[in-house]
Amino acid sequence: MLNEFIKFSDWSITTLIALSPLVGMLLALVFPKPAENSRTIAWGVFAWSLVPLGLTLFLWLSGGFNPALASVTGDQAMIQQVDRVRWVPFFNADYFVGLDGMNFPLVFLTTALTPVCILAAFRIKQRQNVYLALMLLLESAMLGYFVSLNFLLLFLFWEFSLVPMFFIINNWGGENRRYSAFKFFVYTMAGSVGMLIIFEFIYLATGTFDLVVLSRLAQGLPVDPALLAPKLGAGYSNGATLQSMLFSAVQDVGLTSVLGNSNGTPAAIIFWCIFVAFAVKLAVWPLHTWQPDTYENAPTSGSMIVSAVMSKMGAYGMIRLMIMLFPKQTNHFAPILAIFALASILFGAYAGLAQTNLKRLIAYASINHMGYVLLGLAAAASAAPESLGNLDVAIRTSALNGVQAQMVAHGFSTAALFFLAGELYERTGTYQLDQFGGLRKVMPIFAGIMGVAMFANLGLPGLAGFVGEFFIFRGAWGTQPVITTIAVLGLIVTALVLIRMYQKIFYGPVNHKLTNLPDIKVGDWAFNVTLPLIIVLLVFGIYPKPLMDLSNYAATVMAQVFTSL
Amino acid sequence: MNFQIADFTRLIPEFLILAIAALVLLGDVLTRWSKGKESLAERTGEAIAMTLMGLGLAFVMVLIQGGFFSWVQIGDWKFYNFSIFQNLRTSGLDGSILGGAFVVDPLTHIGRLIFIGAAFVTVVLTGKAKPSNNPAEFYALILFATLGMIFMTAGGELIMIYLGVELTSIPLYVLAGYFRRDPVSTEAGAKYYIFGALSSAILLFGMSLLLGLTLMNGQTMNATPTSLSSVKTAVELAFANPEGPSQGVAILGLLFILAGMAYKVAIVPFHAWSPDVYQGAPTSMTAFISTASKTAGFFLLYRVLVTSFDAPSIMGTAAIGVPTSFGGWTSLVAILASVTMLVGNLAALPQTNAKRMLAYSSIAQAGFLMLGLVGTQRDSSVSFLMYLVAYTVTNLVAFGILAVVEDNVGGTDFSNLNGLGRRSPGLTLLLTVAVLSLAGIPPLSGFFVKFYVFIAAWQEGAKWLVIFAVSNTVISLYYYLRFLKAVYFAPAETEEPIKVGFGPGIVMTALTLLIFGLGIVPTWLYGVLEQATIRIGAR
Questions:
Q1: Which positions ≥6 away from B242 have C-beta within 8 Å?
Q2: Does a structural domain hold residue A227?
Q3: Is residue A55 part of a domain?
Q4: B20 FRET partner, CA 20 to 30 A, in A79, A530, B331, B506?
């Protein structure tokens, strides 16, 4: 039964990808501290961070991960390279990690960006080895989160990812670092506590934390009863769905007198609790207020990783825990989700216009871009108009594919923007936009690189950002035409925000204090940091097929779930 | 009532503690006596060293006897040096000695480990709160209390249980009021004593009723009339004849014992003494009273309830809405649990003193813990015991850090904790872990045990209680996060770093690692605890 939708790994490669950074972390901490300005540890950590990237690329290129593989019964995508070991028997919980089309792009994003961020962290002078060790811990926590298929395990990694980020901001951050670090920590924590309690209830009602089993239950697919804890739940029988099991648990407790006798109410409450947890992480309006503070006050490489990868943890959580476990509720509430998405898009864009601080501006642009991600998810789940006909599945699939592509592309372009913002600060000592001016004449290569990153971020065709936004909008037009029409306005305003930023920095009269800034030279450190990012943005902009292929099958399966609702 | 020579070896840890306590007292007489400070320092140092060595030795001894260590065997070679371990082991575990008065089973071993460990930590933590005169008494009293706790856990007979309770309580009264010059501490001692004496009387009255019942039933030809198994027989006989008068006596006996122990472990509505005592006592003593003493009380309650009152008709069920619903002591426990956690949580909200807030928090924790007592199925019992272990470890860290802070700052109000994050990042990190564990945040042990008792109570049918408890965890988050707000957010009066001694530093770090360990790999205790519940007869 289990083997029908799970393909075990021969040599635990998923575990290796997720946990190998921990070994590097320990090595970095125990390695005797070298002399001042020595880069031994830094290079060592960088080399170590290439290991997970190498393993991921190996899986991708060698076909060890086949994104188009269906389960034996053909009712879902095959979960591959699985490691599954009993962990807490009395909670029926396993150490269960695996890859499918929904998490592989994000694993790639994480493993590819961490080396870049570590390279960018070479600027950190104070206790550099600890900082780099924390980066590796963060990488491990995020990778663990993406590959976990058991809620307890996933939540463990989710919480663990807060710890290194908290210390990175708290100890190495900017002016307001303590406040920002605590705000970041408390917001994420407070959002997720509701989700934790909700999942405790789901466990009591169903007897499992296994996300794959739960998603099969949610879709009414057959589940082996042996996978559920025997004494719990209302007793699984054929035809029971997650929704009906939750409802019968609520009936057992006697809460129906409070919640009413509707089958869908408990699931709806649970849906919103899960949404809030991840909306905080994704920085969806109105739960976004921690995000500009965090992005502004984190050190450069910290901003890079938190904006590029960590915010995607929210979107991924929505896919894995919200959409896949509660498709009916997502479908039902999709218009509201779309309105939240629209609010993020518009407010992010317009708030971006008002910013005078470079990092805050990029942060608000990020809120806007994550709005597209949420719009894509809402579009994929929305009820489709009759006129769509056979296009239904294709439309939803393209929205979901767009979400994945947008997450990867935004990760690379935002990381580049934050890095360049940090470099500007190193050169000029300020993030204030009105302090710059005419820098294109002083630093032409810098201007060129930042231009590419900026245009990729706002979605110029030919660069990676375009692919995601195009597919999201293609999907969204089909199912949410009105909201999408308004969202286009956000597209234009974001372009305005970023171009205005570019203009203020690089055009106009040269600020006389800034006439002899060092430019980025071909082959120097800053160039090497940005080069891989720019290459990836160009390659996926021109030839996005490999990236789209990763998620395509899983997206199609998910789209079919919504089509059949 | 015959004492066999083999019984002696089974009591080695107790004899060891007793001997060390006597040595601490005697050694003090033989040390330099004068009015000077050097003399006092020397005497204190000597008493601490001897106490720690004795407790450490006893701890290792229990580990060996319980079979937690195994000897080295490579191929056919069994390392002869270790054969003493093996002798100890074979003579250690199992058996009811002294005619069933003292039960040596895995539960006793777990209790020994917890109490000896907690006493060890307490002694390390005494810090500046060291006694100003007669130091040896102070440490010897800790040892006697530890001994009493073991008797409470191991008691298989009413008189032994009562002796254990008294042996624990009397030293603790003295220790709580040890700072005679400090009115708060004196008040704590006096209050603890009055409430404790009253509860002992109630407990004793309940026991006398049960003894009367066993004697009345005449079931004592072969067994000791006061043993828990005789009580079990008598109580079941009484319940078999619902018309007769003896059923009422059995119920009264049970109620009085429950009430007496509820005083000792501070269950609402018998909790009023505990915040005052916890706040007034020296902080290291608060750590000891709130962890070890409470654990001992719960172990006692568990053993008595599971051994003597586990017939289904007496237990009843805490479930609502099913045909045979709501009655027996489990439903009483369920009600007490819900009231305890609610009152504890609500009373903790407005507190301005960290120690007092933790006192209310431990009342609330007792409420959560009792979810594991609303039934005696395997999961209930194991989760109950696991909760006690995790609670002890976590609370020791929390109070231990408060003790260190108090030594440096001179108080435990929240205003004293302000800016701790800047003054001592390491200490603050440990405090954060402990507080988050108490709040039940994964991956810390507090989450796993809390969730485990939820599952257990759900399986026992007390689903309403689980929902109630879950909503209570949300309330508790508020006051636990206030801790973190104070230490991270509030501005410090000075930036002067806090001095953490070597001993407390090591012990707190080790316990914090244990909090993580019990959380990430919660299974490693499971086997031992399951054994304990099987031996004691939980279903």
A1: none
A2: no
A3: no
A4: B506
Residue whose structure tokens are 């049918």:
B461
Q: Which of A9-18, A532-541, B76-85, B339-348 is least confident?
A: B76-85
Tokens of B480: 């636990």
What are the tens digits of pLDDT across the range B109-118?
Answer: 889 999 999 9
Structural domain includes residue A375: yes
pLDDT in tens, B488-538: 777 777 777 888 888 888 999 999 999 998 888 888 888 888 888 888 876
Identify the DSSP state of A517.
P
CA distance A206 to A188: 27
- In this prediction, residues A39-55 reach a mean pLDDT of 87
Nearest to B442 among A159, A178, A201 (CB): A159
CB A372 within 8 A of CB A406: yes
**Residues above pLDDT 90, as percent of chain B:** 34
Q: Name the pairing type of β-strands A6-8 and A79-88.
A: parallel
For the cut 70, the answer to whether the pLDDT of residue A1 exceeds it is no
Closest of A354, A355, A349, A553 to residue A459, by C-alpha: A349
Task: Tell me the chain A residues in contact with residue B539 when contact means C-beta distances shorter than 8 Å.
Answer: none
Chain A interface test: which of B326, B418, B430, B455 (most A C-beta within 10 Å): B455
pLDDT band for position A144 (cuts 50, 70, 90): very high
CA dihedral over A164, A170, A172, A175, signed as positive or negative:
positive
Q: Please tell me the distance from the alpha carbon of residue B460 to that of residue B462, in angstroms, as a whole number.
A: 6
Query: Which tens digits make up the pLDDT trace of A202-243?
Result: 888 888 888 888 888 888 887 877 788 777 765 677 677 878
State the average pLDDT over residues A314-329.
Answer: 89
Dig out the tokens for A516 from the structure. Answer: 């002899």
pLDDT value at B81 more than 50:
no
Helix and strand totals (H; E) in chain A:
23, 3
The answer to whether residue A85 neighbours chain B at the CB level (below 8 Å) is no
pLDDT at A234: 57
Cβ-based neighbours of A425, under 8 Å, separated by 6 or more: A300, A358, A431
Whole-Å CA distances, B366 to B268, B291, B300, B519: 9, 11, 14, 19
Q: What domain range includes position A392?
A: 326-565
Number of domains, chain A: 1
β-pairing, B73-74 vs A93-99, is unpaired
Residues whose CB falls within 8 Å of the CB of residue B496, separated by 6 or more in sequence, listed in order: B423
A230 to chain B, any CB pair closer than 8 A? The answer is: no
Sheet containing A79-88: give its strands across.
Answer: A6-8, A79-88, A93-99
pLDDT of residue A30 exceeding 80: yes
Instruction: Give B170-185 pLDDT, tens digit per residue.
Output: 999 998 888 877 888 8
Say what the pLDDT of residue A141 is: 92
The three-state secondary structure class of B327 is: strand
CB B380 within 8 A of CB B310: no
- How many Cβ contacts (< 8 angstroms) between chains A and B? 66
Pick the residue of B322, B422, B432, B451 with the most A CBs within 10 A to test the interface with A by mutation: B451
List the one residue out of B114, B134, B136, B129 whose CA is nearest residue B49.
B136
Nearest to A197 among B383, B455, B473 (CB): B473
A88 part of a folded domain: no
Q: How many CA atoms lie within 13 A of A396 on its CB side?
A: 28
Q: Where are the domains of chain B?
A: 316-539
| CA-atom Rg of chain A in angstroms | 23
Closest residue of A to B443, CA-based?
Answer: A156
Q: Are B145 and B322 in contact (CB under 8 A)?
A: no
Residues of chain A found within 8 Å of residue B450, distances taken between Cβ atoms:
none
